[in-house]
TrEMBL record:
Belongs to the 2-oxoadipate dioxygenase/decarboxylase family. It comes from the Bacteria. It comes from Streptomyces humicola. It is an enzyme of class 1 (oxidoreductase). InterPro entries: HGLS (IPR009770), YdcJ_bac-like (IPR047869). Coiled coil: none annotated. This is 2-oxoadipate dioxygenase/decarboxylase. Gene3D superfamilies: Uncharacterised protein PF07063, DUF1338. Its cofactor is Fe(2+). Its EC number is 1.13.11.93. CDD domains: VOC_YdcJ_like. Keywords: Dioxygenase, Iron, Oxidoreductase.
Length: 446
C-alpha cells in the first residue's frame, strides 16, 4: 500500500536490498553479526501520528493484536528547536523469539494539544473540537483487535477482515482537506497540520533496515532521489556500530484535493511524507547511553566553534577519542548489552571456570553476542522530522510547557509503557543465569 502511495519508497527498498546483498558478499558471516540477512531484509519500522489520548489508546489496542507493546517514551518537543509538538512511543514485540518472527515496530506520535507554547487557548479549543469530531478507527476494527489480543488468535476469515480494516485505516484519504484550517495549523507546525488538519491518519513513513547506510545514501543520491542533508545518530567510524543511524529522502509534494472557504475543491499539494532508512547497532546500557549523550554535546560544542569543519569529521574524531573501539571494551566497561552463550571450544580438561563473565569470555568458556538496539533516539527522530519540514513553525518559549511524561502516557493508554533498558537488562541477565546454571556457578557468577 505504501509503495503505491509513495513510489520512491519502492526504490528505497530495492536499493536497501542491493546494498545488503553487497555487504553480505563482502563480509560473509560478519554481516549477520547483528541479525540474519533474512530478518534484516524483512525488517521495517513504520511511523504514524494521532491527535488525542483516545486515538492513541485505540492504536495500542490494534497493535496489541499483533503482540506489539508500547516501549519507551520520547518527547520530541525538547529534542529540536523547531516546532515538533508531539510525544511518542513505539509499539513492538518484546520477546526475542517474537522479534525474530515479527521484526516490526511502529513509532507512534501524539499531538500535544495542551502545550501552550504551540497552541493558545482559542486554537486549542478549535483543535480539540476538530479531533473529537473524527473517527480514525472503525468499531469493527477495534472489536476484532480486542478479540485477537484476548484470544491470542482469530479464525482465518476474521483475521483477514481484521487486516483489511487495519490497512484501510492507514490509507491516505482522498477526502478534500480544509485548506484554511490546514494552513492555520501549518503556521504553528507542519507536524501539527499533518495530524490535526485532516480527518484521517496515514503512514507517515515506512523504514527498511540497511547494513551500510552510508552506501545507501550514496546510491539513492546517484538515482536522483533527494536525500536530507545528514545521517542522524552516531557517526560512521571503524569501531562497533551502536544504537541507531537514520536518514531519509526528502518529503515529497503529494497532490491532495483542497477545499477552499467558498466550498470549491481545488488541486493542491502537501509535503509531509518521506522515506526513512535505518542501520541498527548494539544496545547501550544507561551508562553507555550517558556517554553517547555526552559525546553528542562535545560534537555540538565543537561544531559551533568550528562552523567551517564538516560535522561528520568532528563527530568521527570525538568518537575515536572517547568511544571504546571494540565490543570487548564495551562489554568490559558495562557500556553495552550482550547475551552470553557457552563456547563450543571451552576447556574440557576438568578445570574450574572463572567466576566472572569477563573472565569467562577472555578464557574461551563463553562467547558474547551483542544485543541489537530495537528502539529509537528522540533527537534523531526529531532531526528527521525537522529535516523534512518546510519551515521552523512557531513556539512561544515564554509559556511553560505542558507536562507529558511516561507516567502520563501509561494512564492515557491504560497499559504499561515498557522501559527499553529494562528489557535489554532482562535479556542479558537471563543469559548469564543460564550460563551460571550450566557451569554450576549459581550464586558465584558475578
Amino acid at each position: 500500500m505504501y509503495g503505491q502511495e509513495v513510489p520512491a519508497y519502492t526504490t528505497l527498498v530495492d536499493v536497501s536490498r542491493e546494498v545488503n546483498e553487497d555487504v553480505l558478499r563482502a563480509q560473509g558471516a560478519d554481516a549477520e553479526r547483528l541479525g540474519s540477512i533474512s530478518r534484516v531484509t524483512a525488517e521495517r519500522h513504520g511511523a504514524i501520528r494521532v491527535g488525542t489520548p483516545h486515538e492513541l489508546q485505540q492504536v495500542a489496542r490494534i497493535f496489541a493484536a499483533f503482540g506489539m507493546h508500547p516501549v519507551g517514551f520520547y518527547d520530541l518537543r525538547e529534542a529540536v528547536t523547531s516546532a515538533v509538538p508531539v510525544i511518542s512511543t513505539a509499539f513492538r514485540p518484546v520477546d526475542g523469539g517474537e522479534l525474530a518472527r515479527n521484526p516490526f515496530r511502529v513509532f507512534t506520535s501524539m499531538l500535544t494539544v495542551a502545550d501552550p507554547r504551540f497552541f493558545d487557548a482559542d486554537l486549542r479549543s478549535r483543535l480539540e473540537t476538530f479531533l473529537a469530531g473524527r473517527e480514525l478507527f472503525a468499531p469493527e476494527l477495534i472489536g476484532l483487535a480486542d478479540r485477537a489480543a484476548t484470544e491470542q488468535e482469530l479464525p482465518r476469515q476474521e483475521a483477514e477482515r481484521f487486516l483489511q480494516l487495519a490497512v484501510q485505516a492507514f490509507e491516505l484519504s482522498a477526502e478534500p482537506v480544509d485548506k484554511t484550517w490546514y494552513e492555520t495549523l501549518e503556521r504553528i507546525s507542519a507536524v501539527a497540520a499533518d495530524i490535526g488538519g485532516v480527518r484521517s491518519t496515514h503512514i507517515n513513513h515506512l523504514t527498511p533496515r540497511v547494513l551500510d547506510i552510508d552506501e545507501l545514501y550514496r546510491c539513492m543520491t546517484e538515482r536522483g532521489i533527494e536525500m536530507i542533508d545528514t545521517i542522524q545518530g552516531p557517526p560512521a567510524w571503524k569501531g562497533p556500530d551502536v544504537l541507531l543511524r537514520q536518514t531519509s529522502f526528502r518529503a515529497l509534494a503529494e497532490p491532495r484535493a483542497m477545499r477552499t472557504p467558498d466550498g470549491s475543491v481545488v488541486s493542491g499539494a502537501l509535503r509531509v511524507r518521506f522515506g526513512e532508512v535505518e542501520a541498527r547497532g548494539i544496545a547501550l546500557t544507561r551508562k553507555g547511553r550517558a556517554l553517547y549523550d555526552t559525546l553528542l554535546g562535545h560534537i555540538d560544542d565543537q561544531a559551533s566553534q568550528n562552523p567551517a569543519e564538516a560535522r561528520g569529521d568532528i563527530a568521527r574524531a570525538v568518537w575515536e577519542r572517547h568511544m571504546p573501539g571494540s565490543e570487548q571494551e564495551l562489554a568490559a566497561g558495562g557500556l553495552a548489552y550482550f547475551t552470553y552463550q557457552l563456547s563450543p571450544g571451552r576447556p574440557r580438561d576438568g578445570s574450574r571456570p572463572p567466576t566472572s563473565i569477563s573472565a569467562l569470555v577472555q578464557r574461551g568458556w563463553v562467547r558474547a553476542e551483542p544485543i541489537v538496539y530495537e528502539d529509537f533516539l528522540p533527537r534523531s527522530a526529531a532531526g528527521i522530522f525537522q529535516s523534512n519540514l518546510s519551515g521552523e513553525g512557531t513556539r512561544d518559549n515564554d509559556q511553560p510547557g505542558a507536562a507529558y511524561d511516561a507516567a502520563w502516557l501509561c494512564g492515557a493508554i491504560g497499559r504499561d509503557v515498557l522501559d527499553p533498558f529494562a528489557l535489554y537488562e532482562l535479556q542479558q541477565s537471563r543469559s548469564i543465569a543460564h550460563i551460571a546454571h550450566e557451569l554450576d556457578l549459581t550464586g558465584a557468577l558475578g
